[in-house]
């Protein structure tokens, strides 16, 4: 009997199609185990002989079972090896299936066919008999190896290293005061705070408006909406500071007298909530959720004097220029329109400029106080850029990536700078130098996204209100007392020259 | 260009419009999702918007091939769906799937007169869809790893597979969240857009 065993063994050894028992695992098997859930061994095995011939110095040890150890450390490039570095264009499972199904019998009973069809529709989402899926091969090279998808960097940024420059002035990193703003509506599209020239800060908290006297610190509740479901969507002071315009979610624009704390007018011309307001002496412009902008002449009974249709979605930013010649509007349709103050030939208002470069809603709109026709705009989450425009030529003078949703921009009257308010992730205010567009400082403190910014009448303090229900006052544009005296002297000298020339 | 405004929509014109929309739509998706570095994109004016298209010559070539092929198939009304699949390079797992369903009015023939729909109206509709694609970045989950994209086209069963194309599976996402975007129609072709993404566990 023994000789048959010997013969069987011999035959077993000579046959090459059965795996050798007790042999160390082949290199390709080890690789498959290492890479774990990679492509199936079907794709990798053809490489075996070629790999074998190149393995030198690190010969596998004779002991079986020692498979998991990394004997050769080859750098794994995206699931491939040095012959096929990138297997992402191959579909291993599909190829395997197509190869192995060649010889399957086509005999099937009708009910089985029905069942199969139902399964196919379920799995594939379409009827296999009716359609087939094609895929274009020969895809171009992917982005270069070192490319890190920088959206990740964008949204998980912790500290911006930008503000390590030496500042020539001291900007306190803590706010001057923190006020409570409970029940404030966390809606990006509303404009809920404004600071008057008489030093009153108006804040709209859900359905009431409160006035905070900066000088004395006292708080007055100016108004409260009668209807519980109606909320305030915008507030804006007239230049003189004695009247306050209030826009509501019930599409009304109300005018309130501060002295008497009485409502003077209730102007209804819109059909949707009024998210933004802007004054130009006696003309009050209001922007609504429909995308329409109305001009109201508050002195006459027929207040609705003009309609501007340039936006197809909610108007969230609206600002008259300081000389009253242009009105800039930004909407949820990512457009910025610049309107003239007078009608064109046909009696219609048409924008003199339309800027489409923003990729997100434009709420931050601000005119430069020391340079004519210069406008700054900021985009929402999808865009995150601040752009400076010349509205006469239509050119974009500069654009900078702020890495975060921009809710508001304010130019400083004391320095050649502007400040922007942001949301996720740092909820900070950033001071930028103009025109170099470098960061001067970053003011942090808010724990939720900033909703609005407004500036004090003396230009030294900026108030920011955020979704964390706080209002913070930042004294970032404080004037140096010596410089202040120089400025005042310059102003008074100018006026005396004018008097002389008139004489 | 002005003449085209008033001519209405023909089958060929509709196929061109839709193929063009796909080209710009795919470019927007590649930019917004960070598949390729943003520096390789440039701004162009289209549909009254500022859109970003790639400057990479190979990619441009590749997309042009697809657009040309799509034009042909749309003209013949044999394409049902275009899908942009975004998958991780490392693991091959599908992370995002943009599906554009095409409903073709098969009764439209080239010799019949143009249909009534102004170019402007169609442009406005396309504009809304592209804006929505841009706005999706606010809710789509972050793509943590480097990703690659794939284009799948669902065609009629009996279509001869042209060179460079191969058959494929649907590449669905396991455990996905779906969002439907706006649709637009040229009266001959109607395009519905949905985006499916992997639900965060």
UniProtKB/TrEMBL annotation, chain A:
Pfam families tied to this protein: WD40_CDC20-Fz
Keyword field: Cell cycle, Cell division, Mitosis, Repeat, Ubl conjugation pathway, WD repeat
Bias (Low complexity): 35-46
Listed pathway(s): Protein modification; protein ubiquitination
Signal peptide: none
Keyword check for Cell cycle: yes
Ranges: WD repeats: 232-266, 308-339, 443-474
Positions with biased composition (Polar residues): 52-76
Spans annotated as Disordered: 15-84
Keyword Cell cycle: yes
PROSITE patterns: WD_REPEATS_2 (PS50082), WD_REPEATS_REGION (PS50294)
Protein origin, superkingdom: Eukaryota
BP terms from Gene Ontology: anaphase-promoting complex-dependent catabolic process; cell division; positive regulation of anaphase-promoting complex-dependent catabolic process
PANTHER family (alphabetical): CELL DIVISION CYCLE 20 CDC20 FIZZY -RELATED, CELL DIVISION CYCLE PROTEIN 20 HOMOLOG
Family the entry assigns: Belongs to the WD repeat CDC20/Fizzy family.
Name the record gives this protein: Cell division cycle protein 20 homolog
Gene that produces this protein: Cdc20
TrEMBL record, chain B:
Biological processes per GO annotation: cell division; mitotic spindle assembly checkpoint signaling
Domain of life: Eukaryota
This protein's GO CC annotations: kinetochore; mitotic spindle assembly checkpoint MAD1-MAD2 complex; nucleoplasm
Principal localisation: nucleus
Gene3D superfamilies: HORMA domain (3.30.900.10)
Domain HORMA as annotated: residue spans: 12-195
Pfam families referenced in this protein's UniProt entry, alphabetically: HORMA
Location(s) in or outside the cell: Nucleus
Signal peptide bounds: none
Keywords assigned by UniProt, alphabetized: Cell cycle, Cell division, Mitosis, Nucleus
Family of this protein: Belongs to the MAD2 family.
Name of protein: Mitotic spindle assembly checkpoint protein MAD2A
Source organism of the structure: Catharus fuscescens (Veery)
